[in-house]
Description:
Layout: E1 2-9, H1 13-24, E2 29-32, E3 49-52, H2 61-79, E4 84-86, E5 89-93, H3 98-109, E6 116-117, H4 119-125, E7 136-140, E8 143-146, H5 148-159, E9 163-164, E10 169-173, E11 176-180, E12 185-193, H6 199-202, E13 210-220, E14 235-239, E15 245-248, E16 257-261, H7 279-292, E17 300-311, E18 325-328, E19 334-338, H8 348-360
Parallel strand pairs: 1-2, 1-12, 2-9, 5-14, 12-19
Antiparallel strand pairs: 3-8, 4-8, 5-7, 6-7, 10-11, 11-12, 13-16, 13-17, 14-15, 15-16, 18-19
Amino acid sequence: MRKCEVAVLGLGLMGGAALGALLDAGVDALGFDPVAAGSDRGSSHGSCRIFRRFNFENPNYTSLSDEAHAGWIRLQAESGQTVLTETPILEAGRPGSAMVASSRAAAIAKGRPDPKMTAAVANKEFPAFNLPDDWDVVVQDGAAILHTATVMKLMRARARDRVIPERASFTPRHDGVSIRTASEEFFAERAILALGPWLGRALPQLAALLNVTRQAVGWFKPASPDTVVSGRFPIFILDRGPDDIVYGFPDFEQRGVKAAPHNHGPVVGPDDWGPQASDAELRPIGEALAALVPDAAGPIIDRDVCLYTNTAPADIRLDAGEEFIIDRWPESRLIVCSACSGHGAKFAPAIGQRLARLATDPSYQAEPFFQLSRYSQFA
C-alpha cells in the first residue's frame, strides 16, 4: 500500500491549485483524476474564464480576488506563459440593476475611482455596443481573460509524477483515508475532495445542498470583427432583468465572440455532458448580442456545454446561495471543496491555499461564510 500525507481527489482548477500549494510547502501529496488536462469534461475544461477583482456577488470576494490575482501573476512569472490577459470589463443593466450597483460599490470600497459611466459614453468608447440610454453602466480595470486551458496544463506539469491519472474511490477511516484505483491501493492521512459536479455523488449527505445545471456556451461570428478584438473590446456582463444575465469575451482566439448565459440552465446529473449546446439553447444569447452588442452578433460557429455546481441558500448564517463550501467534513479526515456556482474559477490559487491549510494545520479554519456550519444540518 502506497502512503502519503494528503491525497487530492479531483484535479480541476481547485484541486490542482490545492495539490500545487501542498507540494510547494513540501507536503507528501498525491493527486488523483482520470480526466486529463485538455479534456472536454470537468468544471474547469475549456480555454478561458473571466477574472474580476471587483465582484458583485459578495463583498467578501474582493480580498479573495486580490489573493488569487497574486497567485496567477506568480504562476505566469514562473512559467513564462500567459495566464492572464488584462482587459477592461463592462457591466451594464437595466435602471437600478443590483449587479451593477454591487460591482460599483466593491470598487469604491477598495478606494478606486467611481467606475460609473453613461451608456452613451460606453457606446462611444466601445462601438461594438448599443446599450440603451437609460441603462446603468460601470467600466473598470482589474479584469482579465483567465487562460484556463494553459493553467490546467501548467498545474499538471508542475505536479509531474505526483498525479495518478486514474479514477479513485475512497473510504474514510479513523486514522486517515483509504483510496483505491483499478491498479493500486493508497493510504492518506487526509484527503481533499475537489470533485466538481461529482461531489454530491461522493458525499450523499451533501447532495441536497448542491444543484448541478447545464450551461450552454456559444462562439458567434462577429458582424464587425475589428471592433470586438482584444484591446478594443472588453469582457462584458449584461443584466437584462430577473434571471437573465449574459456574459462574453473579446475575440481573442480568432474563434469568434464567446458568450453564454449566467442564469441557471436545466438541472442535470454530473455525467450529463451531452449533447452539445443546441441552436434553441443559444438563440436567446444570439438575440441578446443582436440587441445590445450588434458588432458581436452573427452565426454560431462553435458551441460547448459547461456544468455549474450551485450551492443552496444557507439557513444559519444566512446567504442567498451560490456561495462556496471550503471546510473539513465532520468526524473524518476529509476536506471538501465546492467552489463553483459559475464564478469560482478565478479564485483557484486562493482557494487552493485554504484547502492545503485545512489539510495540514489543525488550528486553521476557512472564513465562516465558507463553512458547512452555515447550514443547520451541519451546525
